[in-house]
């Protein structure tokens, strides 16, 4: 009977230890960790203002690939983006990764919430960085820097540059699911085809969830 109990309990303990080990490699699915562990994948959705985001993440050891779709409901804009995260620092509970990506943007030019908005199609260049700090096995803080640059693909020009920084938290709630809250502040340069370029403050506030597959 003791042998039978050991045969039943040992795999269960091993599985629990494995799950805990995977959690310790980096809590999160939506924004954290800075880079997903190799072989891990996640899907996530972030709702808020002025954007909604749905994405997919895939870990490859020190590198992560991400694909996402954004919808800006202030400007009635859609964007498809792909980017990579590169782990450059991972000591203790702290991990830091620069990011680089490309995307395509379609802007309707709607001005009902954005008086200086202008329409067109754009190539988006996406430099940035992500840092994560694990405070517990189920809680991580995150910091982000994003500098999306929209380069016009139409002859009449017009461009937009944003510089955003901020942070938030992601908490693991079980069954591979985590909840995230993220806020960012910054500035943007709007260079409309028919007006002088202006700098102005900008912001984002998002909350959502992610599901991680180890």
Keywords:
single chain, 214 residues, mainly beta, Porin, 1 helix, 11% helix, 62% strand
Describe the protein in words.
Strand 7 and strand 8 form a beta hairpin. The chain is built from one helix and twelve strands, in the order αββββββββββββ. The protein has a single domain, classed as Porin. The protein starts with a helix and ends with a strand. 11% of the residues lie in helices and 62% in strands. Strands 1, 2, 3, 4, 5, 6, 7, 8, 9, 10, 11 and 12 form a twelve-stranded antiparallel sheet that branches. The protein is mainly beta and 214 residues long. The N terminus is likely disordered.
Number of domains: 1
User: Outline, from the CA principal axes?
Assistant: elongated
CATH architecture: Beta Barrel
Strand content: over 45%
Radius of gyration: 20 Å
> Which oligomerization state do the chains in this entry correspond to?
single chain
In short:
By secondary structure, the chain is mainly beta.
Draw up the topology in text.
Elements: H1 2-24, E1 41-49, E2 51-60, E3 63-72, E4 77-86, E5 89-91, E6 94-107, E7 120-136, E8 139-146, E9 149-152, E10 159-174, E11 177-191, E12 198-213
Antiparallel strand pairs: 1-2, 1-12, 2-3, 3-4, 4-6, 5-6, 6-7, 7-8, 7-9, 8-10, 9-10, 10-11, 11-12
């Amino acid at each position: 009977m003791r042998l039978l109990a050991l045969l039943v309990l040992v795999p269960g303990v091993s599985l629990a230890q494995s799950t805990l080990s995977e959690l310790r490699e980096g809590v999160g699915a939506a924004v954290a960790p800075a880079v997903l562990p190799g072989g891990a994948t996640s899907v996530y959705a972030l709702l808020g203002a002025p954007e909604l985001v749905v994405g997919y993440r895939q870990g490859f050891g020190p590198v992560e690939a991400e694909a996402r779709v954004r919808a800006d409901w202030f400007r009635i804009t859609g964007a498809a983006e792909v980017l990579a995260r590169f782990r450059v620092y991972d000591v203790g509970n702290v991990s830091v990764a620069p990011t680089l990506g490309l995307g395509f943007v379609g802007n309707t030019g709607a001005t009902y919430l954005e008086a200086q908005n202008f329409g067109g199609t754009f190539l988006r260049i996406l430099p940035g960085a992500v840092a994560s700090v694990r405070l517990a096995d189920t809680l991580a803080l995150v910091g982000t820097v994003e500098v999306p640059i929209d380069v016009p693909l139409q002859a009449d020009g017009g461009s937009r540059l944003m510089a955003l920084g901020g942070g938030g938290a992601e908490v693991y709630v079980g069954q591979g699911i985590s909840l995230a809250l993220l806020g960012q502040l910054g500035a943007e340069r709007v260079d409309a085809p028919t007006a002088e370029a202006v700098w102005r403050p900008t912001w984002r506030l998002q909350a959502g969830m992610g599901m991680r597959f180890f």
